[in-house]
Amino acid sequence: MAEVTELGYLGIGVSDLNAWKKFAGEVVGMQVLDEGEGDRFYLRMDYHHHRITVHQSPEDDLLYSGWRVAGPQELDEMKQQLTDHGTEWTQATAAECQERRVLDMIKLVDPGDNPTEIFHGPQIDTHSPFHPERPMHGKFTTEGEGIGHMILRQPNPPAAIEFYTKVLGMRGTVEYKLPMPGAPDGVAQPMFLHCNGRDHSLAFGFPMEKRINHLMIEVDNLNDVGNTHDIVRQTNTPVAIQLGAHANDQMFSFYFGNPSGWLFEYGFGARKSTYQSEYYVRDTYGHQPEATGFGMDIEM
Ligand code: MBD
Ligand code: FE
């Protein structure tokens, strides 16, 4: 069975391109790559041509996610797995593949109606080392683990878990049972999925308005969490969840709002994915909620 290997790229729609350039460069520390197209620019985190395409759009939400497979053979197998499951997919044109800077790709929607792409062969620009827009102590951890993780809207979590495990080949299940008014039986049971050494690349099971609640990115130096936290505070960027450690990935992280009104989680020191499932009833420490309105008003 073919399996996706990493969360390879994202396309996001933003109403204010300039605010995003400033935010992504000066607050987050990514590299901004503008190739003069006018309606988009790119964000780099490593040698990949880009990891995020920022499109001008009134949506202020995730536009598409790109899941990587190892190569052409795996992409063929993935097409068969989708067909066998009854999931429709379309072959991307050569122009669409070039636009994404990949060798080949297909397009589909996941059970939550989230536009999804499966690709192989990203463009790797070894001649252009990652250069953050502001100083960093270390670098983003993406090698073999993709961009990071994201929380997606999934109105039907059982359908989503079946799709991402049985069709895309990820592993995971419920990892928390959290008291939450409004959840079925008053208990939220979010699910977390991995496809490589990263503890989770995808999670769902939280009530959400946008397609995406947050994108987590990880750094390999604790000082970058501290420095980014300082910059977030100095720029009055809203902090939705304060510094703390999750029970599942055990990463030291905090969450701040971006100009589109969804969140970035920024952390250091995550453990690797576990071989066997386990669940938790609260977080390890910290992570107190602060700014509200980001769909993360949940005590962990
Ligand atoms: C996470 O990364 C997360 O975002 C939440 C809400 C819970 C556990 C791990
Ligand atoms: Fe997270």
How does this structure look, described?
- By secondary structure, this protein is α+β, with helices and mostly antiparallel strands.
- Helices cover 19% and strands 32% of the residues.
- It is built from 5 helices and 19 strands.
- Strands 10-13-14-9-15-18-17-16-19 form a 9-stranded mixed sheet, covered by helices on one side. Strands 2-3-4-1-5-8-7-6 form an 8-stranded mixed sheet.
- Strand 17 and strand 18 form a beta hairpin.
- Bound molecules: 3-methylcatechol and fe (iii) ion.
- The site of fe (iii) ion (FE) has 4 residues, from strand 15.
Lay out the secondary structure.
Layout: E1 6-14, H1 17-28, E2 31-33, E3 40-44, E4 52-56, E5 61-68, H2 72-85, E6 90-91, H3 94-100, E7 102-109, E8 115-122, E9 149-152, H4 157-167, E10 171-174, E11 178-179, E12 187-188, E13 191-194, E14 202-204, E15 212-219, H5 222-234, E16 239-245, E17 252-257, E18 263-268, E19 285-286
Parallel strand pairs: 1-4, 5-8, 9-14, 15-18
Antiparallel strand pairs: 1-5, 2-3, 3-4, 6-7, 7-8, 9-15, 10-13, 11-12, 13-14, 16-17, 16-19, 17-18
3-methylcatechol (MBD) binds at residues 216, 246, 248-249, 265.
